[in-house]
């Protein structure tokens, strides 16, 4: 009996692709890098513009508050005068039986001295 061996068909097998060939779809790497850089540059520009607007708004708010300071100070001065008058009236009522006491007068009879300064490493 003859040996029968399986073999290729006449003319050989058709060729097939065995190498990895990924089709190049989409933009190249440099294009993606340039697009990312452009988006970031635009973002930095917008951040800078919003910082300018925020700074201008903050300056306007500060100017508005500065314009209100004299009115607020006048209200505080008025409140302090009323509170001081009430305090002096209460003080006179409490100390009415103490001879030679004047309400509102300083209880210290010495000349004012500034606090002593530390010497050494704290200066």
Automatic annotation (TrEMBL):
Membrane topology (UniProt): Single-pass membrane protein
Pfam families: GRIM-19
Main location: mitochondrion
Keywords, sorted A to Z: Electron transport, Membrane, Mitochondrion, Mitochondrion inner membrane, Respiratory chain, Transmembrane, Transmembrane helix, Transport
Annotated Gene Ontology cellular component terms: mitochondrial inner membrane; respiratory chain complex I
Record's keyword annotation contains Nucleotide-binding: no
Domain of life where this protein originates: Eukaryota
Function, as annotated: Complex I functions in the transfer of electrons from NADH to the respiratory chain. Accessory subunit of the mitochondrial membrane respiratory chain NADH dehydrogenase (Complex I), that is believed not to be involved in catalysis.
Family as reported in the entry's similarity comment: Belongs to the complex I NDUFA13 subunit family.
Protein name, entry field: NADH dehydrogenase [ubiquinone] 1 alpha subcomplex subunit 13
């Amino acid at each position: 009996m003859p040996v029968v061996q399986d073999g290729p068909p006449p003319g050989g097998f058709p060729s097939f692709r065995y190498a990895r060939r990924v089709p190049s779809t989409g933009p190249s790497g440099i294009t993606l890098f340039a697009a990312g850089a452009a988006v970031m540059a635009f973002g930095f520009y917008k951040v800078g513009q919003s910082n300018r607007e925020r700074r201008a708004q903050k300056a306007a708010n500060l100017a508005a508050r500065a314009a209100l300071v004299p009115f607020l100070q006048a209200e505080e001065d008025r409140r302090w005068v009323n509170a001081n008058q009430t305090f002096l009236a209460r003080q006179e009522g409490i100390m009415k039986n103490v001879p030679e006491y004047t309400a509102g007068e300083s209880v210290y009879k010495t000349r004012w001295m500034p606090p002593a300064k530390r010497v050494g490493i704290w200066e």
